């Protein structure tokens, strides 16, 4: 009890350490918006940045992924094995059609979002997640955060 009171009374670095380990909704949305601006400046350069771990589009558990709006094929993802595969093949652990939801959601000129459950990196239990999606030309890109 006394330990809990101390953490409440002195939030300092101890109180912020856990939250700082994971990206937040505003950070995910801002990264998705930044991805849209980068895509508008040049698709090939943008996709190269999104696929490069040092490209400026990865922060803790936040990252940009993209797919072609026609074929549904991933064009950018930290998991290189997914690049070239169809986003519509993704399923939630319970079999729900996650990929179909992601494929249908992006709209040109707007940030849209999709809620679903997906394991955190390194985990197996599904956790509530929301992904913000943007569409620029023939590319749709998303950034998700765990709630």
Automatic annotation (TrEMBL):
Organism ancestry: Bacteria, Pseudomonadati, Pseudomonadota, Alphaproteobacteria, Hyphomicrobiales
KW Transmembrane helix (keyword) present: yes
Broad class of the protein's primary localization: membrane
Annotated keywords: Cell membrane, Membrane, Transmembrane, Transmembrane helix
Native source species: Rhodoplanes roseus
Subcellular location: Cell membrane
Name by which UniProt lists this protein: Chemotaxis protein
InterPro entries: sCache_2
Membrane topology category: Multi-pass membrane protein
GO cellular component: plasma membrane
Residues covered by the Single Cache domain: 27-100
